[in-house]
Predict the structure.
Amino acid sequence: MAYVSHLECSAGCGAGPFDPRERHHLCACGLPLLVRYDLGRVASTWDKASLVDRPPTMWRYAEMMPLLDHDKPVTLGEGFTPLFHAATLGRSLGLTSLYVKDESLNPTNSFKARGLSAAVTRAHALGAETLSVPSAGNAANAMSAYAARAGIPAKVFMPKDVKQPFIRECELYGAEVTLVDGLITDAGRVAAERGGPLGWYDVSTLKEPYRIEGKKTMAYELAEQFDWQWPDWIIYPTGGGTGMVGMWKAMAELEAIGWMPEGRRPRMVTAQATGCAPIVKAFEQGADRAEPWADAHTVADGLRVPKAIGDFLILRALRESGGRAIAVDDADMVRYMRDLGRHEGISAAPEGGAALGALHALVAEGLVKPDETVVLFNTGGALKYLDVLAPA
Ligand SMILES: *Cc1c(COP(=O)(O)O)cnc(C)c1O
């Protein structure tokens, strides 16, 4: 049942194709690799009706997942999260069809579970003996949990000012935690220096090809949950961009296997923090790559990514979809976390608040029309960020 055909350079540099049965992280040119499938064979053997009795996890889309040679997923039940109609919040914005895809309901409380379930599944199948990851918090929690599930030792590297709950949760899953002076990029450098010589398997964002495959399932689910139609807008808090790049890839795949019509994709919107908005800046300047953001700071740890290796892929998805990139300040994120809680009963991370902030800006500009269908991604829950909710 393996439909994976090969790994390919995301920038089309001409190197490769690469063999998915071997360990590959980046392309020879230093840019991310993407997983390719035998789409013709998938199209002729897989149909939507098969989904009816599949498990309610992201692995229900097994034909388009990186499972080779009868591999079993390393799973904790990630994905197939609910899509809530946010009627009250929508009304306050003058919108009839506002939805929240609630990723806080994933294992370890964020959508990082999707990417790490897929990455650890492949790492396990490839015989990795030690896993390592630099993280702003949520990726470290997810990696630690899936590594524990697979029985592989985990090493995590986080900025030393990371919030306590992220550290304690990694320890709970038995991971070894190293705190690094600096940002996630510095944590990545230390992880590579330490793990490189020892052969640790690095699952950094976009530095191995499989986290994208986990995150792309968010688009497969949206398609299925909207009965095989796309919403008009998707608003996504963007850090490293795995989800944005993954969903854009998923849309092309769903068109290629004939499950979704061509030429009707949603407009993709990136929400970032005013204290760290490299993609917003590059988007506004018409640049193909983003410059590293100096002095990155925001309460939304997942958005504190000063330089994304897949910046060109994020920018391409935004532009090809007729989308936007919008920065939201920390005070507004917290305000909108409270709105999601108070009006819809949703526990939102600051990143979820940022998505709602970006929607407010789009509505104020008159870009989103009252009857258009809008999906906000709440990428994580509030519980690890309670300090930002403490009364002043
Ligand atoms: C990591 C993270 C993000 C950013 O995700 P990318 O797909 O890497 O851009 C957003 N929100 C939360 C809660 C995160 O943990």
